[in-house]
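Sharing in case it's useful to others searching the archive later.

Someone asked me privately for the predicted structure of Chloride channel protein, so I'm posting the question and my answer publicly. Question first, with the sequence:
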Amino acid sequence: PVAAGSGIPEIKCYLNGVKVPGVVRLRTVVCKATGVLFSVAGGLFVGKEGPMIHSGAVVGAGLPQFQSISLRKIQFNFPHFRSDRDKRDFVSAGAAAGVAAAFGAPIGGTLFSLEEGSSFWNQGLTWKVLFCSMAATFTLNFFRSGIQFGSWGSFQLPGLLNFGEFKCSESDKKCHLWTAVDLGFFILMGIVGGLLGATFNCLNKRLAKYRMRNVHPKPKLVRVLESLLVSLTTTVMVFVASMVLGECRQMSPSRHGGNDTLSLQDVSEDVNASIKTFFCPNETYNDMATLFFNPQESAILQLFHQDGTFSPVTLSLFFLLYFLLSCWTYGISVPSGLFVPSLLCGAAFGRLVANLLKSYIGLDHIYSGTFALIGAAAFLGGVVRMTISLTVILIESTNEISYGLPIMITLMVAKWTGDFFNKGIYDIHVNLRGVPLLEWETEVEMDKLRASDIMEPNLTYVYPHTRIQSLVSILRTTVHHAFPVVTENRGNEREFMKGNQLISNNIKFKKSSILTRAGEQRKRSQSMKSYPSSELRNMCDEHIATEEPPEKEDMLQQMLERRYTPYPSLYPDQSPSEEWTMEERFRPLTFHGLILRSQLVTLLDRGVCYSESQSSASQPRLSHAEMSEDYPRYPDIHDLDLTLLNPRMIVDVTPYMNPSPFTVSPNTHVSQVFNLFRTMGLRHLPVVNAVGEVVGIITRHNLTHEFLQARLRQHYQTI
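And my answer, the predicted structure tokens:
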């Protein structure tokens, strides 16, 4: 099922740091490649560019690992690149290579991977991804040129989708590709393209929700029947529209200039050879059938370069039918892309504008191919909302750098117009899947929140030396992927107070400011449970009641009562449980590091432990290669056979934990937390106060737009 659709939303999620199950499996790419072959050849209104990007990402994820779950017997001892960061970098390169091969645009592929995909980018990755994209482009070019023309090594066909060369006829002296006056029309087309794209996204979102409610929960056969229904409807509509609504128009002679290149001649011949007669008399062609009964790439070339005109009525009907059918098709359970259908839809819209300007306003100087290209850019930009990469992809596909300015202006206007109504199509499908995708930055008003407002204070933690039964209990009763490693610090609390200042790690805070901050935090969270900081408890010891208003006296009285409540002792063989009281859950805990679930499971699986009668030095040590041997699929705690292990044995986790993870203070602004989390590619961010106590933890879920909005509303309600 994960092979359905274009795959770009899934790859976008993966590069953003979310692991979508099965998205980069070998069986996925086999299903994707086979499925898109038949869906495109079968005449569905889908493209192959999106699936190519997904396929490239799967190749990038699997090739450096030198192993596959589907082919278990084929394994090589290649320990390099066995980490999430390396794998993510290769997926970025693979996605860029897919774009480069699809459009013959290596630079556009690199920018696509940067703009749409990767959350975590570094300078060294830029060159590697560009080299990968360039290699993909020329590999495809080499084989296509050799197979199609028999001239191996000539490099004549750069990508699967080539727009041909835009060139005015030499006999038409008034013709220009575009002029400054045309920019005004391009801006208007960008606005209309943004509106059409927003309409497309809105309709497709409603269809996707309907499918999630009424199609996906039902037996798998229902999805097959839906795909067959779409295929049947598409076939009938194409045939009926061509026969009933098409017009017979006179053929125009093939144009060849004396100094045309070979590729331009080929494009001209392809354009004029692909026109369809379809029940029309000799020397005429059916304009509707020419658009419907050709492959999508040939239809785009027709709209870009056909000398003969298409009727405005034909273009309008073609646009409407293609718009509705492609919107219905995107989302059914077949591999399907959206780039080419959007380009074809937009090209028809642009050609329609050019025809109207020529016929009714009398602008004879305009070049119809330019307007078709700008219309394609406007509609595609309104649907997917890409700017930088799409501009470069279209420029590289046309081989015409002079189109840079109009394409960029059109795409920007289309994006701004569409963003006023809804998100891009890929973001919509990501949200429908409920994936916690992190945007590029937070909104300005989110800085009213602090780390303590969004963190999860209810922690599940382990001790440096923990019994096996405790670890097994923790792992089986939680789904967390990392656990803070802590020790209790009750005996050392009073030592931090010296004179009028709290001294910790060379940071000095005046009592009054801490007390004020405590009041603000209490007022925001309405509970001390979310702020179990010893610096606040210590400040209560010498509090002068006359300095604070009555409500703060109540708060401090509660704090004093909690301060002197004896904390229950917790032995290493006890594990965090639902029966704990709040006192037990929020005791002061000195933070020592983070240990991953995969590491704990590996330690249990390999029996790394020692007995009470021994020292921790007698515990066996595992190397990094041994710890990561099962990457990327570590065993599940429920599948482990632990009968040979003594539950009273103790595991020393200190050699395997991360002793210096990124941490933030409880008072850190949310924007700083967000930037640190996203740019460093984190999964867990502990919140540690000034005396080294862990008071909460922040994960991706705590930084999603919906979660931050909910916490901001709570913040306003408590003010």
